[in-house]
Write a structure and sequence with these properties.
Two copies of one chain form a homodimer. The first copy, chain A, is of the alpha/beta class and 291 residues long. The first copy, chain A, is built from twelve helices and eight strands.
């Protein structure tokens, strides 16, 4: 297996393709409707850019879908349609932060299109030198994705059912991004209520390590908040599907929506993180404006 | 100042009274409508039990209200009525986990009743030997409560406005109890989705200290969950009042409500914490039942 399609080459997709390319794979993509930054990243990562999705589906032996979760189902539908048009059936891997239920719907689409579907989840930053990025996967036949373990990716099979890898991603992301949103909210509230310094003092008495950890999460979150909104809604749906309240993660999505309404969200991953005080001030002001 | 009234002598109230009693104060209370456990705790703590609330208001120089937050406003109304009946006006201190808005409503009631009101918040476990319990307070005149700093309590003034001490309590409790609920939810979801072991493995790779911390919070929470429901709703209201989403903490309240529907909530603070696996199993089953 030598040709991999990646849709789309954003921060995560381009980093994955770069690693695969450096390990001898031919990485193809198409850029219809993608941003200038995505195009730049695809070029920098050395992708071969094909004119259309049909070309990608015809050319690639395996297609990895790496997008914001809100686009995952739509892209799968386009790829399934493209498979019917082209009669090409590359293995399809959904790598997105989606609920097990959404993964199962995509699995059904791919079965109907006549190809193998692999559910996958990514934990960690975009892969690269010194980065600890882990890919988990599940499905009836995960061999094609496992092969990428010899091409520079760290891959682990977590089960034989579609949905298991997504479930793992959901609960893990809940612990990281959910906590980040919760701490952001309470720090913004403390600022708005004029007790920020008193709260810092209380943390210094017994929870300084925890608090310090989360202050770092608050400042590194803003430029990623926009794409996390959909992911948090997937988590809410996942939890609701097992009878748990969706409201915590609907609220977490609300927090990332608030961040995305501010200038903080316009930063790119290439700029340094803003100072904590700036993040809290901007968010407190935006909350007041929305109130 | 030698006579303090405490309403009511639950886990927290009885521990506070015990410390004040050991430091030479005469601690009075009444037990109308209180549980057998509360009665036992009041007796063990050496409180002088008076027949009615009017007797407490007539006898005490300062009254501390220490209850579940949902009862705070109702008790304040009863005490204010009692002040009118008895023409006695002891200083009234609300020590509960309530929103600044609720604290301000109680402040208005007490002004109308002709007495001094002090807003207070408690951070930490019930006070006692080796316990680090901090009382913060705010209000125009906090001197009477500050005096209890010479009677074994650790008291700090955080401002001159009613609502500031409550605000500090809200944001601090958001960080502890909110996080506990969020981690409980994701661990229960992992269990229900059959990826608990995979999640534990992922945590072991990079977040083991954080995860270990929160596993401890999950097991020590169940017997306290019931009384936290109202507190989380106060936090939701506090955040909404500054334009932030109420949904995270409405969901946190949902989680504690789920816990309170199970046998886990029947444990008392005198029994050892249940094992993590038991907590997760019971909650996953209850969620499924409610679904």
């Amino acid at each position: 297996m030598d040709i991999v399609g990646i849709i789309s080459p954003g921060d995560m997709g381009s980093a994955i393709g770069k690693v695969l390319g450096e390990n001898g794979m031919d990485v193809v993509t198409c850029l219809e409707g993608r941003s200038d930054l995505t195009q730049l990243q695809a070029e920098e990562a050395g992708f071969r850019i094909l004119p259309t999705l049909n070309d990608v589906v015809r050319t690639a032996e395996i297609v990895l879908c790496v997008t914001p979760p809100v686009e995952a189902l739509g892209i799968a539908e386009q790829v399934a349609a493209s498979m019917k048009t082209t009669s090409a059936t590359p293995t399809y891997v959904d790598c997105n932060a989606i609920s097990p239920g959404t993964a199962q719907r995509i699995g059904t689409l791919m079965s109907e299109a006549g190809t193998t579907f692999i559910d996958a989840g990514i934990i960690g930053p975009p892969p690269g030198p010194g980065r600890r990025t882990r890919f988990s996967c599940s499905g009836l036949d995960t061999a094609a994705f496992e092969e990428l373990g010899t091409r520079g990716l760290n891959i682990r099979v977590v089960g034989r059912e579609v949905g298991q890898a997504s479930a793992l991603k959901m609960v893990y992301a809940a612990s990281t991004k959910g906590s980040a949103a919760l701490w952001t909210e309470l720090m913004v509230a403390a600022k708005a209520l004029g007790v920020g310094e008193e709260l810092a003092y209380e943390f210094s008495l017994g929870r300084s390590e925890l608090a310090e950890h989360y202050m770092g999460e608050i400042t590194s979150m803003p430029h990623r908040a926009k794409r996390w909104i959909g992911e948090m809604e997937e988590i809410a749906a996942t939890f609701q599907d097992v009878g748990l309240t969706p409201r915590i993660f609907q609220g977490v999505a609300d927090m990332f929506r608030l961040v995305s309404e501010t200038s903080l969200a316009d930063q790119t991953s290439r700029e340094p993180d803003p100072p904590l005080e700036t993040v809290l001030e901007v968010l407190a002001k935006q909350a007041q404006t929305n109130h």
